[in-house]
Write a structure and sequence with these properties.
- The structure is a single chain.
- The strands form three sheets. The chain has a seven-stranded mixed β-sheet, with helices on both faces. It has a three-stranded antiparallel β-sheet with strand order 9-12-11, with helices on one face. It has a two-stranded parallel ribbon with strand order 1-10.
- It has twelve helices and twelve strands.
- By secondary structure, it is of the alpha/beta class.
- It has two domains: about 110 residues, Aspartate Aminotransferase, domain 1; about 240 residues, Aspartate Aminotransferase, domain 2, CATH 3.40.640.
């Protein structure tokens, strides 16, 4: 992707080699403008019927945008506060039994380990951990679910979902590092036994913190209520009081009271990326990341094994010091506390100049 107008959509890139979308993506100007407009409208006109009508319209628009990206029907998509929120909501749908176990990988983010740890304490569920490539062999007759990241946040390795599917156990995917980063087709993943997929809005989708998406296969959870305590938005007829029933579609899984301001920012960010072309966005990032990883190897730097993703992790002499050195050079990357690795998040908005600066930093901190 060489369109300068696309890169110009992200003001932070004017002076900064911003390479941390794996935490939070660069914010498009259009996203901030949309959020400010919502706040200004509330300030000037109040937040009564018109405000909430606009909120409901934004919910529809957001679901449609996520549906085009993830290739899923809008009625199967819930709007959430992020990946961890989605994972927790999915796990809450399971009627856990004594002796149940969950299998996770040894590269999981707290977005998986946090909810999994809660299962141990609340439900008495056993959680087994295995290397990413050995998850299928870790499954036992007592395994109720495999909960795993589609792309490892540590290394950028990509899960072989087809190989895992051979274990015959329902799969819940953490899509924090795959949503809007690589191509995701929920229709195809469903065929491989994926029953839920949770994604982030603030990472590769470049939206506000506090936004995300959850897909749940209706065939897996047809009559499982709302999982987490329902609120006004989850109910088809809130005025029915104690008799109120949940929406029959994915609105029953929505997070509570997502504000119009965040939804407006999320929609605007998705529209910026979609206007650039999802095919181009989802291919440019991984291609640039692969080229950068190869250049690192060429200068003798140890790169963690990775897949066709947007993440590259490598070993400098001192990871924490390298992050500080990067900030002085106008480069934003991250390290992992207690681990020796640096991670760069390389998106479709990353320019050749950003990559050159990053390589200079890698040489200086090797």
């Amino acid at each position: 992707m060489r369109d300068g107008s696309f890169t110009a959509s992200f003001p932070v890139l004017e002076a900064t080699a911003y390479l941390n979308a794996g935490t939070c993506g660069p914010t498009p100007q259009a996203s901030t403008d949309a959020m400010v407009a919502q706040l200004q409208a509330g300030l000037e006109h109040g937040r009564a019927a018109t405000y909430y009508q606009g909120l409901m319209a934004l919910q529809v628009t957001a679901r449609e945008a996520w549906g085009r990206l993830l290739r899923a029907p809008v009625e199967e998509l819930a709007l959430t506060n992020g990946t961890t929120d989605g994972i927790a909501r999915a796990l809450a749908l399971v009627p856990w039994r004594d002796g149940d176990e969950v299998v996770i990988s040894d590269e999981e983010h707290p977005g998986v380990t946090g909810p999994a740890g809660a299962l141990i304490r609340r439900e008495g569920v056993a959680v087994r951990t295995a290397p990413l490539e050995e998850l299928a062999s870790a499954v036992t007759p007592r395994t109720r679910l495999v909960v795993v990241s589609q792309v490892s946040w540590l290394s950028g390795r990509v899960l072989d979902v087809a190989a895992l599917a051979e274990a015959g156990v329902p799969i819940v995917l953490d899509g924090a590092q795959s949503t809007a980063a690589i191509s995701v087709d929920l229709g195809e993943l469903r065929k491989l036994g994926v029953v839920a997929f949770a994604g982030s809005g603030q990472k590769w989708a470049c939206g506000p913190v506090g936004t995300g998406v959850l897909w749940v296969d209706p065939a897996w959870a047809p009559d499982r209520g709302v999982g987490i305590w329902p609120s006004y938005e989850n109910l088809e007829d809130p005025g029915s009081g104690l008799d109120a029933k949940a929406w029959p579609d994915a609105r029953r899984w929505d997070s509570t009271s997502l504000p119009a301001e965040l939804l407006a920012g999320s929609v605007a960010s998705l529209q910026v990326l979609e206007a650039a072309g999802w095919d181009e966005v989802l291919s440019a990032g991984p291609a640039r990341a692969a080229a950068f990883a190869e250049e690192l190897r060429g200068i003798g730097v140890e790169v963690l094994p990775r897949g066709e993703s947007t993440l590259v992790s490598w070993r400098p002499a001192d990871a924490e010091a390298a992050v500080a050195e990067g900030l002085e050079r106008g480069i934003v990357i991250r390290n992992f506390p207690g681990l020796p690795w640096l991670r760069a998040s390389i998106g479709a908005w990353t320019t050749d100049e950003h990559v050159e600066r990053l390589l200079e930093l890698a040489r200086a901190t090797a």
